[in-house]
Design brief:
Blueprint (H helix, E strand, L loop, with lengths): L1 H15 L1 H6 L2 H5 L6 H9 L4 E2 L18 H4 L17 H14 L12 E3 L1 H13 L5 E5 L5 H8 L4 E5 L2 E2 L2 E2 L1 H10 L4 E7 L11 H16 L3 E7 L27 E8 H4 L8 E6 L5 H16 L7 H11 L4 H25 L6 E3 L7 E6 L5 H12 L1 E2 L1 E3 L2 E5 L8 H16 L2
Parallel strand pairs: 1-13, 3-4, 3-7, 7-8, 8-9
Antiparallel strand pairs: 2-10, 5-6, 9-10, 11-12, 12-15, 14-15
Helix pairs in contact: 6-13, 7-8, 7-12, 9-10, 15-16
Amino acid sequence: MAQQQAIALNEIIQKENPAVLAMLSEKGKNIYFPKGGILAQGAQAKGKNINATIGEAIADNGKSMYFSEFDKYLNVEVENIYPYAPSFGRPDLRAVWKKLLYVKNPSLGNQELSLPVVTNALTHAISMAAFMFTNEGDTVILPDLFWENYELLFCESNNAKIETFNSFKNGGFDVEAFAAALNAAKGDKIITLLNFPNNPTGYTPTCAEAEALQKAVLAVAQKGKKVVVLTDDAYFGLVYEQGIFEESIFTKFCNLHENVLAVKLDGATKEDYVWGFRVGFMTYGIKGGTPALYEALEAKTAGAVRGNISNGSNLSQSLLVKLYNAPEYASYKAEKYAILKNRYTTLRNALKAKNLGTYYDALPYNSGYFMCVKVKPEINAEEVRKLLLEKYSTGVIVFGDLIRIAYSAVPEDKMQLLVNNLYAACEEIAGK
């Protein structure tokens, strides 16, 4: 589908002006703006009574969640708004984000990390990681349930390939499939990306699974393989169940072996409810990492940012520095976390109470913004999605036989209605 969309655009350009097509790079020829998928389905759900399509936390009044503290911050000093920010990012923001990494991940202890380099939010961080570590033809190992944008970032933009492994087994993460994919990888270098809480499934490994993931990577590193572990921590901190690994999975790899380079890709976007700020970070960790090594990696990363967007927003970075230094910051986080956890719990209870298993089963979920249900073979998920839009004023996202629900965007008092609508739509499709 992705290739077909790119070909269609190329044919239009060829017809209108062949010279322009000849000017495009191979990356330019392969890139496209998705007509289907999340963006298109989300647009169709706009204005519906229930819109569980968007990856954003929405307050009960229908507007974006935000920290009210920003209302008084908007009178910012001129020097923190108008001048260019460094391509590395503001030094004060980099320093405070690094400090927060140790607060959020106590097991890091005294492990030395690089200073985070600021990116234009997390998508840009992944793009820069692809720039830094993927050559044409390289393979990136992912679970088979992954954010569709990875295809644009790794395949279309960098000519890499994606190889997937089975996500779940026996109600948990399929660590054996992950280990098998690592062992089957060809060449001296392995690139893998782990995204927890996962989009689209909303799953984070248990503590035991996190240990097993670490052992799988260590095993191939000890055989001489060079392993780049990219960790997409977009939804970090939103874990709602006991026994789930609460720190970043980055902590399992950043001091594991001299052959394992961990690259933490995170940002303020979801962690601090500032989707429009577009501030992300890239942080490196490796066993025996020295200041000189980290400074060289930071310089290379900043060079990639410089050659791509020049630098990020000074205003956004300045506002975040103020927020992170505010004494009330922790209480703001706790307040928003409680809202999302209550929505998660209410949805889980509503699903269980509405004959879960009759028309669909829930994939494992315990964290983040999302969860997925897998419809029974006799039900067409796309038909369910369309019926939900047309008859029940409800929007969801569909991937094959999976329906993704963004409960982060649904008020708690509409959660039961969401489940009722989903059940009714499936019942109607099944009865056709």
